[in-house]
Amino acid sequence: MSAAKIFSYISVLCIFVIDVSANEFADIDSVTIIGSKNDLKDIAGSGAFISNESLEQAMDTDVAKILSAVPGMYMRTEEGYGLRPNISIRGTAIERSGKVTIMEDGILVAPSPYTSSAAYYFPTMGRIHAVEVLKGPAAVSQGPQTIGGAINLLSTPIPKITSFTLNQEFGENGMLRTHAYYGGISGNFGGLIEIHDHASDGFDSIANVGGDTGFDKSDVVIKARYATDNHSLMLKMVDLDETSKQSYVGLTQESFRENPRMRYGATAYDKMMNDGEQASLTYAGNFDPFNIVVTAWRNDYHRDWFKVSDFNNDSEHGERDDINELISDANNGSANAQAILDGEMPVEIEYKHNNRFYTNEGYQFTLSTQLGIHSLTFGYRDMEDSESRVQAYEYADQAADGSLSALYGYVGLSGSDNRLRESSATSYYLQDTIDFGKLDVTVGFRSEDYDQRHRRWGEPAGPNLTPVRITSVRDTFATNDHTTSSFGATYELNKNVVLVAGFHEGMTPMFGAEPEKADNIELGVRYVNGATNLEAFYFSSEYSNLSAECTLVSGAACDADESAIFSGGAADVDGLELSASWIIDRDGITYPIALTFTSTNSEFQNSSDSDYFGTVAAGDELPYIPDTSMTLVAGFVADNGLSGNVRIIDVGSSCSLAACGAYNVIEPHTIIDLNLRKKVSDSLDVFMIVENITDDENIISRAPSEGARSQKPRTMKVGLSYQF
Question: Sign (positive/negative) of CA torsion 407, 412, 413, 415?
Fold first, then answer.
């Protein structure tokens, strides 16, 4: 981020932040889907609210660890830092979080939610203020992905008084994180400028050639707001930039045994380059008895993941050349395949610019009112999104000693799956909560109508990797009109116990294909007594057509037709979610304890054979859905300002493919983190965090499907939080 750009942002902010007055100010910084932790008891479905206090205590930047506090969530890490998480809710397909509705301040933030929801972008968690999760029938109000649920990330609100906050961290492997924001309110005006910069040299080594495996990621957020007693107008802008020297290539079993935190020399040129701009304008008004919130937004996002694709060795060594196939061959005993990966054989390496441009823009509004015993909400969204692929290849030579030549031979773009995909979508929902006293009944209806166009290019483009308009080889159009309904009920058994039941039809839009559909039910109970909370839910999802989109990272045998849609047929997922929290007071020290547990059964209901799912037999389990997961957080808060906690995350076994071979197994693993915080003064805290304190080297994912990856090693970081 240039100094000139930051200075211009500060100049804009100074227009809005002057001396603070005590005027009341409408708070629409973050459009919520729950509201607050206290509102959870009224939801006709299951949900969770992770407060800013909880986020500040743990100082997490990895959303997988943050969401481990919510039952029914499954996560797969990519690189150990949470830059590109893979999230599943109640058994939805985990890859790239493409089957989960992800929002920031109520706005869809997947770069192309209808066209390409699995686009490898996730908001920077280090700057997020709070997190909301909706599951069950309540999630039908969000969409478009409504089978599992929705995640809404709440950004930093404008401070009620002029203030400056700084969180500064230093850690091993050259880690440096700076999170700072300044803002406040003057009369009817308010403003905020926020900067988040996070960098590391990485913890993996690169065999033979060495090099950096870290990242540098920065966000700048600007908010400006004008509000009266009944009306508020908020402008929010986000500028983001990332360079990550990361690779999607895992290790063979032999390589993992020798050094689980090593990368092959061939991946030394792998690099993810992201940049984007987001802007939204939100109006909220109170027209008694109606409340309305209207938002218009535009998100532009570009990413180029330059990464090893093939080893051009067929004729010389007789091995398959695709990186996925090479890892599989090595696992199955091919000495030549292992030698090529180890850099012991000369070979030409092909690298691909997985270069994509995304747009996402539209407007939405919600209208809510109370009419007698009815609480009515109507929501409408009109939007367009797109994905443009402009991809090219480069090459390098690997010598017999594992060294690499400089990159050469930039190759034009024909034949590299270049295309433009576009979607135009309108959706609306109507939700009515009827108050019968102890019994509340919520009924909902959602409609999705989207048109999609797919154009593949027939001529090469230039080497500048910019969007181009090229004569189309093939145009494909698709139209989908899909409706879903939901029903939920809560019954207040007594002042402490609420019973919950619900049913909803869920769907996930698939580009150019029928949407994935599932019928979902849940039955639960909530118990609240002071600081003691207990919640238990049974859930079930019956898929009529489990669907998946082919990607290079999936490791499936469909790379020749990347983004093709494949069906796994019928599948069932069911399980039990438990969460509990309580506080113990002893001799001036409080001990907060929180526990979440999920037990899951998943299986395909029929046999099938496809390039994506492979050969599936009825009864096979769904990939990456562990049988159990548990998180325990136990902490203390002392009167002298010292606090801390230990977090234990325990994940059961799973497989990377349905037809689970020996090299697809992900064994059970445990992650233990520790943090301590000391309040030095009213304005200054210092803290220390140790991740993976046992320094375990377990396999926590396989990507591609047989490539083993280890969890982040034991890592210490220290920091301070300062506010004035």
Answer: negative
